[in-house]
Amino acid sequence: MKIAKNLVPSIAYQVRTQDGVLVDEAPVEQPLEYLHGHNNLVVGLENALEGKAVGETFEVRVKPEEGYGEYNDNMVQRVPKDVFMGVDELEVGMRFIADTDIGPLPVVITEVDGDEVVVDGNHMLAGQELLFSVEVVSIREATLEEIAHGHIHGEHGGCCGGHDSDEEGHGCGCGGHHHHHHHNGCGCGGHHHEEAHEGCCDEHHHHHHNGECCDEHHHHHHTADEKCNKQ
Fold first, then answer.
1. Residues 96, 56 within the same domain
2. Same domain, yes or no, for 130 and 46?
3. pLDDT tens digit string along 160-178?
4. pTM tops 0.90, yes or no
5. Which parts of 114-221 are beta strand (E)?
6. CB count, 10 Å around CB of 80?
7. What domain range is 59 assigned to?
8. Any residues with CB less than 8 A from the CB of 75 and at least 6 apart, and which?
9. Are 61 and 129 in contact (CB under 8 A)?
10. Does 149 fall in a domain?
């Protein structure tokens, strides 16, 4: 059996930056399992996995346009502190979920300057070329339910860098099970499993509109004095 759409491969992998820094991994003992062909991995990695068989190992370099995208300066914004209603102390490194027109978006505070805060909605690996070292551990048939939902069900399922699944349980890269889980939020997509191992998604929310993080000029029926509340 070879990897193809609607099959469920399990992969072991390591993800490194161009500088050789290890940003995410899943060992053979705890591989990442995902539904192939449903945007659950970054495009460059999923394309490289197509047609691979159990036991095959390979390396692939993924450029930003097939990974986490180029760094977008428009995703960095300075906003007033009072939009983070309910958060007593704001610190660099704190992560929030922005409610955007395209869905929830993890953002991080990069600067606290008096009454203003700078937030960045870029993925932590945006603009970087990544090296994936991969081994195909197993391949199985997907269930009809998994195909209907667009993601696998189970302990080690993930979305490795692709789009977050509806089964709340980071997208961020292969990174280790991306089903809203946020293993490390890198590599394959980040493993969004809703567990926020990476801390990509903290428990706080703020709003984001028009492709910017935390736009204080709210549209679509939001008022100008709308605040960011805890989840």
1. no
2. yes
3. 444 433 333 333 334 333 3
4. no
5. 116-120, 130-141, 173-174, 179-180, 187-189, 192-193, 204-207
6. 13
7. 7-67+126-193
8. 120, 121, 122, 211, 212, 213
9. yes
10. yes
